[in-house]
Write a structure and sequence with these properties.
GO terms for molecular function: beta-N-acetylhexosaminidase activity. The chain is α/β, with parallel strands linked by helices. About 25% of the residues lie in helices and about 30% in strands. An 8-stranded parallel beta barrel has the order 8-9-16-17-18-19-20-23, surrounded by 5 helices. A 7-stranded mixed beta sheet has the order 1-7-5-6-4-2-3, with helices on one face.
Length: about 775
């Protein structure tokens, strides 16, 4: 019996091992549309031939494959043309066949024990087939030095593949911090590995102009350097600076080198030249282009600045057109990104030249003046055979006729543009802003704020919006954005970008219905071995569990759910204040809480690595009674204050315009940046019980009830929700919401759940 038991255990272990091997055999990122596993493998050896058929681009891909594997393998594979259209023994063959159907980037890959065949109707598809072979090979193939005692095998497989979106991009901000050429090339290499086809190069900012423009040499001499840089977070504590001159720029020859390097990997470089805002560095070099004439200095901290190009000055358009002529000469991309975001209008509203321009062009306000500005630049670029991309603020005042919109403030701008018939690239800060924290903010290196896990990135469905099938055709792709205010080193850029950029690559490649996060996360664990060989400083910590609520607040009892962000990990928890270990209670279902306590939880993965400890306070609530009389009018009294605020208390003390709003919302009269709101009234509660509140804002907000602060969401940050539960007696409660927008997006929302857990129509219960 003991022998039989031992045999059964052995069989189970063998089967488990076999299953694991099979699941890890095709660890491709992004995963193909169709993959059929086959038996056996093909080994590349010194006799293997690399052949090609088709255009010169086919030969280029074949040679690129041979050149790629040589350093690690030591194999100097012969590359030659072939007349044969199928699989050839001991050959890796790349065939460009115009008769095949498929979009750009589509390909077919067949690997048998005898050889490899890649077929496509375009060279991009052949190149993506090469990248798939690369990922199927041992990770050691990425080494730049000879690796001995390794078989260069490729598992047998049949793949039919094509990208879901035509635009699959990754952005890099080099304006806030400047990065060397070698890193830019490595960044592009990683895009190629993951079949991404656009590098969005953010070249100009308030904090630095990074591209040489020969007609305007002061952009390199002055605008490319700042006197010092902010130390620490913009929104925390008294501001301090390092006192060190900082900067740099790319010569036109270096920029051309990057363009060619990317083109060799079938990647388009789209340059971004910011206008009409984010222009303070340029104004420091050429102050006559601003509304006041200066003097200006290159910004030494982050944020949004009121110094912008003067829309009423013809010299500004001459300057920008001259700059764009040189930019177009360097970058052959169809698109030129012109920014268009976060342009304060205060200077324009004061400037005599801008007022004159508004009158001459029939602009009813400064937003229409920005639209005039964007239209004029678009017309110039269109006349030169180029199209513009702009951030979703270019919708304000009327969208330029041929513009493509990059939707970053959530998805609303993208949906609006698609409904107007404009192409859209979805890059919402809610899912694709890689400068947000990816784990416990208290333990991670400094970041701008927000919280964005790998799983949330992967969960995004670009086609989930309220669009018809025809409108949805205008969603042409996705992009991840890497803003570098708090990323001074290239290693940190990698740490924040990967593996979340892998998730974006798969979002852009695979239809939502085909995606599987757990399978993706398992593939990543093998993919990380490739990163190790490549020297990528990726994030590979065990993610802390997420709670269903930040704080458990209850009357009699409540339930707390924990969510595992780390695939393959187990969650353990305690409620006695001790640090949980793998000997603590295993989390299997929602925790019932009946007494006040501190619940601590930890994720422990299969390698025994533990996450940071999550702490959730459980508090038993006492009922609160309302202290106000019902209001006479529906809605809330609103004070709208303009200015640059850093905390909610400043808004409370400021003077402002008096309005009425129907709900907790930003009134239409508010500017698009640098303002604050104080919303006051009363909230009617019709039934005793536990009510849940969620206050979301970008930037700071606070909720007061019964003159008591109940949600504190203050400070500079992206769109973040904070929650609270309150035991409320039937009655009327004074309510106040404070909010400020400090640049970088705007948003304010208060949600309320009733005693049954259903969302309430808040406006029906508000009065003043």
């Amino acid at each position: 019996m003991k022998q039989l038991s031992t045999l059964l255990v052995a069989i189970v272990v063998l089967l488990a091992s076999g299953c694991e091997q099979k699941s890890n055999e095709y660890n491709l990122v992004p995963y193909p549309q169709q993959l059929k596993a086959q038996q056996g493998s093909f080994t590349i050896n010194e006799s293997t031939i690399v052949s090609y058929q088709g255009s010169e681009n086919s030969r280029f891909v074949a040679q690129a494959f041979a050149d790629f594997i040589e350093p690690a393998s030591g194999l100097q594979l012969q590359v030659e043309a072939t007349e044969k259209g199928g699989l050839v023994k001991n050959t890796v063959c790349f065939i460009e066949d115009a008769s095949l159907e498929g979009v750009e980037g589509s390909y077919q890959l067949v690997v048998t024990k005898d050889g490899i065949l890649v077929k496509s109707n375009n060279p991009v598809g052949l190149f993506y087939g090469f990248q798939t072979i690369r990922q199927l090979m041992p990770a050691e193939v990425e080494s730049k030095e000879l690796v001995k005692n390794t078989d260069w095998t490729v598992p047998a497989v049949e793949i039919t593949d094509a990208p879901n979106f035509s635009y699959r991009g990754l952005h890099l901000d080099v304006g806030r911090h400047f990065f060397p050429m070698d890193f830019i090339k490595k960044y592009i290499d990683l895009l190629a590995l993951h079949k991404m086809n656009v590098f969005h190069w953010h070249l100009t900012e308030d904090q630095g102009w990074r591209l040489e423009i020969k007609k305007y040499p002061k952009l390199a001499e002055i605008a490319a350097f700042r006197d010092e840089t902010l130390v620490g977070h913009l929104g925390v504590g008294e501001r301090q600076y390092d006192g060190k001159r900082y900067g740099g720029y790319y010569t036109q020859e270096e920029a051309r080198e990057i363009v060619q390097y990317a083109a060799d990997r079938f990647i388009t470089v789209i340059p971004e030249i910011e206008l009409p805002g984010h222009a303070q560095a340029a104004l420091a070099a050429y102050p006559e282009l601003g509304c006041t004439g200066g003097p200006y200095e290159v910004a030494n901290e982050w944020g949004v600045f009121k110094e912008v190009y003067c829309a009423g000055n013809e010299e500004v358009f001459t300057f920008l057109e001259d700059v764009l002529v040189e930019v177009m000469d360097i970058f052959p991309s169809k698109y030129i990104h012109i920014g268009g975001d976060e342009c304060p209008k205060a200077r324009w509203e004061e400037c005599p030249k801008c007022k004159k321009r508004m009158q001459a062009e029939g602009c009813k306000d400064a937003h229409e003046l920005q639209s005039y500005f964007i239209h004029r630049i678009e017309k110039f670029l269109n006349a030169n055979g180029r199209d513009i991309i702009g951030w979703d603020e270019i919708l304000e005042g009327g969208l330029a006729p041929n513009a493509t919109v990059m939707s970053w403030r959530g998805i609303k701008g993208g949906e609006e543009a698609a409904k107007q018939g404009h192409n859209v690239i979805m890059t919402p800060n809610t899912h694709f802003y890689l400068d947000y924290y990816q784990n416990n903010p208290q333990k991670e290196p400094l970041a701008i704020g927000g919280y964005l896990t790998l799983s949330k990135v992967y969960s995004y469905n670009p086609m989930a919006g309220d669009l018809t099938a025809e409108e949805a055709k205008h969603i042409i792709g996705v992009q991840g954005n890497v803003w570098t205010e708090y990323m001074p080193e290239s290693d940190y850029v990698e740490y924040m970008t990967y593996p979340r950029a892998c998730a974006i690559a798969e979002v852009g490649w695979l239809d939502f219905s085909k995606r599987d996060y757990e399978a993706f996360a398992r593939r990543l664990q093998i993919h990380f071995k490739r990163f190790d060989v490549m020297g990528v400083n990726y994030f590979d910590k065990v993610l802390m569990p997420s709670p269903s609520v930040d704080k458990v607040e209850f009357i009699d009892q409540a339930k707390l759910e924990l969510f595992d962000n780390a695939i393959g990990a187990k969650l353990y928890y305690t409620s006695d204040g001790s640090i949980p270990t793998d000997k603590s209670t295993l989390y299997q279902s929602a925790i019932t809480v009946k007494e006040e306590c501190t619940i601590k939880a930890v994720a422990i993965d299969s390698r025994g690595r533990a996450s940071d400890v999550l702490e959730v306070q459980a508090q038993k609530l006492s009922f609160i009674e309302g202290i106000a009389e019902p209001g006479e009018n529906k809605g809330l009294a609103c004070k709208l204050a303009t200015g640059k605020f850093e905390k909610c208390s400043e808004v409370d003390e400021a003077n402002g315009k008096r309005l009425v709003v129907t709900d907790v919302m930003i009134p239409s009269e508010a500017p698009h940046d640098n303002f604050g709101l104080s919303l006051e009234g009363v909230l009617s509660i019709e039934q005793d019980g536990l009510y849940q509140f969620a206050l979301g804002s970008d930037d700071g907000s606070q909720l007061y009830l019964n003159d008591r602060l109940v949600i504190d969401n203050d400070g500079f940050h992206g769109m973040i929700y904070k929650k609270a539960s309150l035991a409320l007696k039937k009655g009327t409660y004074p309510v106040k919401v404070l909010f400020f927008e400090g640049g970088g997006g705007e948003g304010l929302r208060l949600e309320m759940m009733n005693v049954d857990g259903d969302k309430m129509q808040l406006s029906e219960y508000l009065s003043h």
